[in-house]
Amino acid sequence: MLFTAKTRSLAVAAILLAPCTATLAETPEERGLAIAIEGDKRDQGYVDSTANMKMILRNRAGKESTRNVRIKSLEVEGDGDKSLSIFDEPADVKGTTSLTWSHSTKPDEQWLYLPALKRVKRISSKNKSGPFMGSEFAFEDIGSQEVDKYTYKYLRDEDFESAKTFVMERYPTDKNSGYTKQVVWIEQDRYIALKLEFYDRKGSLLKTLVSSDFQQYLDKFWRPSTLEMTNHQSGKSTTLVFSDYQFQTGLKSSDFSKNALKKQ
Amino acid sequence: MLEKYMYWLVKLRWFAILITFITVGLLGSGGRFLSFTTDYEVFFGDSNPQLTTFQELQAVYTKNDNALIMLSPADGVVFTAETLQAITELTEEAWNTPYSSRVDSLSNFQYTYAEEDDLTVEDLINNPTELSENDLVKLKEIALAQPLLVNRLLSPAADVTGINITFELPTENANEVPFEIMKHIDQMLLDIETRYPNITTAKTGVVAMNKAFPESTFKDAKTLIPAAFAIILIGFMVLTRSLWGTVGALIVMLMSIMAAMGTAGWMGIVLTPPSASAPTLILTLAVADCVHFLITFFQQMRAGKEKHQAIRESVRLNFSPIFLTSLTTAIGFLSMNFSDSPPFHDLGTITAIGVVYAFVLSIFFLPALMAVLPVKAPASRKAETGLMNSLASISIKYYRALLVVVGVLIVALLAMIPRNELNDEFVKYFDDSLEFRQDTDLIGEKLTGMYFIDYSIDAKLASGINAPDYLQQLESFEYWLQSQPEVIHVNALSETFRRLNKNMHGDDGSFYKLPEDKELAAQYLLLYEMSLPFGLDLNNQINFDKSATRLTATLQNLPTKDVLAFEVKVQEWMASNTPSLETAGSSPTIMFSHISKRNISSMLAGTTIALVLISLILMISLRSFKYGLLSLIPNLVPAGMAFGIWALFNGQVGLSVSVVVAMTLGIVVDDTIHFLSKYLRARREQGLNTEDAIRYAFNTVGEALFITTVILTAGFMILAQSSFAINADMGLMTAITICLALFIDFFFLPPLLIWLDKRQSTSDEPHGTLHPVS
After folding, report:
1. Looking at this predicted complex, what is its ipTM?
2. How many domains does chain A fold into?
3. pLDDT tens figures, B505-532
4. HSE of B309 in the Cβ direction (CA atoms, 13 Å)?
5. Distance CA B430, CA B444 (A)
6. What's the CATH code of the domain at A39?
7. Nearest Cβ partner of A92 from B117, B466, B535?
8. Which domain holds residue A49?
9. How far is B565 from chain A (nearest CA, A)?
10. Residue A114 to chain B, least CA–CA distance (Å)
11. A91–B530: do the CB atoms touch at under 8 Å?
12. What pTM, to 2 d.p., does this model score?
């Protein structure tokens, strides 16, 4: 009896302690990865989406310039998503379309259709960290954020603007990335990134991205309506405003092929 | 009142000494707030139009603050696997430089070419260690065909290459930043030179120059100030032959400098090379006050007066002259506040404060100190008045000849003044004892120029830079600039468009021309921008809404007048060829090209006010309108003659000379005051005739004037050894002026007095019984 009672209480203790010991055994790297995986999981199943993106560029003196782009995305199971960006403004690049196939482990592939030349041109996969349409966003900032594109390290829990967040660092695995490190604030309830800091090659803070006005679509998927990127070194900033989000619009894989580019 | 003051001063001598030490200590403690500037822009006032234009341009594009590193392989061949590897490594490491925003080099040059139907944009050099001989030859060929590289980052002979680092400098702790950056770069270069012993490096650029300002100041502080002290103290010792007198003078000089620099600290003044020369000036000027007090003091003691009595007598006799000369000197220096260039405000203000402190110390502290020290009068020197007497005789006997000869000399030298050319090649502000100058000259000779002009070419419409009309005009401006002999290199967006157009047509050379429609140009640019890696974007060349581009012309080392002539030529060409693109050039070179002219006109007002004030003071102290007016000749002519001599021997005048007239005015006027007041005293009090009064003036103050001139000349000649050309020129020019002032006072003023009196011999007696102040 005594023995049984003892074992039982030990078993109970073990069960009670299990989550704690599990947490203790988990390294900050594992915890970070787990958070990233959870975030990725929660966004699975959106199938496809379309949206309008307005890009407002601001220079050091606060003057503004606007660009308009339509975005189409397609979820690809087991690999990175595919996306199309169709430029509507400025007028001289109207109809220019970029197609991106994100990949989780190998470099993304990217093409640009130039209507004035009526040709599709491949973009070198090494260089994807330059400014996107003269904005403060690099292509890698707005491209599909696959889990494998980074390694992670959980730092702490923190309140960010009254939301409970996980704060973690992530390090790009691509050696051609423009960054050495990013710090991300992920809201604990919805697993959405509220704030991102980008650190340049010398480890200095380069930019901060703040996402806001999140809307929920299909009762599941959270999308920000506003992305505000501030470059701390140049004093310039860019705001992205998303509108007219549509999900599961029936886009097909063939809509995201090189041949389809010319027809946009 | 002066009697009462002296009575109490001698009585409370210990208290006076204590009070002085405490006050000087408190003032001097402000020295801890002093810092040294590391920004060339301090030479320009806030309202300087060239600075404003340049700042506007830098706000639109990325800033120009840079460091340029040159790599020279010993074998004179850049295209070897080893050298290319060194360039690649250094380029990688350069990205880690604090505050860097961009690194451009041969290795990360974004080489574009057609590959089948695609545009490939990649680093020019990849994996250099795996390159074959054949690859190296091909690479060299490619690189030498890139207009954006040759004469900028690669010499035409491909024997040296450059790495340019661009910075976004923070505004906080700005004075520390260049040190932090250059420390990193020095370490980086040391590392490369250690691992690649065949490669030597040199560095220049705005950040390197900014660091050279305090470096030049520290170098001067270490050598010039001790030298000034040594020479002046030795001179003082020889002159007075009194150890305690010399000690007293030393303490006065030290305390004047400490208190003045401390006050500058309390005022929040940030030192620049010009204002950091204030200690040397204060030291030199303080000496004169001490000389006057001590000489009279010793004379009185030798005449048998008791020590305290001698002190009182010396203060009584010297108070007015020291006060007057200090006042005029301070006015001269304060007028430097009219300068357009803020470092001279500070130099003028600090020196004027130092002069005032020196005055207070020499009539308050020095007498008290002498009262407590066991000082004895040195043995009387055999009067060398024989020499002064002969000089007086010469001046009187040959007055007509002197009047003509010196008069002609003056006119001849004044006529030379216009032969001076304004020149402010700012690199040459630093003499070749400084590493910055050596490296910059070397890089200028082998790789590229330090002087450039930026043009922000405005299409006046968002996306306007893609329009064929705009691009054609930009290109014709680019080509025209390239054909100018002054231009080493032109960086224009039109070159990028030509190259892209060729690449997009399968590298067909016949398409090496501008795209013919706007959409095509815009889409090429979009594709190209999307293909560029982090940090190598076009933000340094294109503004954010694509309504303007920056064109940079790198120039040979040109004297200022040629830069200004070039800019005029550019404006004329634009007006008749590309009128819609018309824009003023902007750069540090342009800013410095205008600085002397701006300063001379701003100092005209300052100099005039100083002249009027000083002349008024002279008239009041001499109690004569006529002699006050006459004093203008010995006060102004020496500076004019100095400029004439300068034209003969040098001919290049820069920023510093704009303040020389005002500055020397306050100093040379002292000679005039002393000479004329003695002359007038002799005529008025002793009723001597002109000749005898001149002899009297020579005998009483001639020697003292000679000695103070020697001391001042020595002090300014030490400043002339400065490693910073602005200070050196100012020192030399002032030394020449001071010597000429004595020459005029001895050999032109007396003949002039005789001649004037001969002309109006009927009314020979001037101004009845008025008493001069000294």
Report:
1. 0.84
2. 1
3. 888 888 899 888 888 888 888 888 888 8
4. 7
5. 15
6. 2.50.20.10
7. B466
8. 10-263
9. 33
10. 6
11. no
12. 0.85
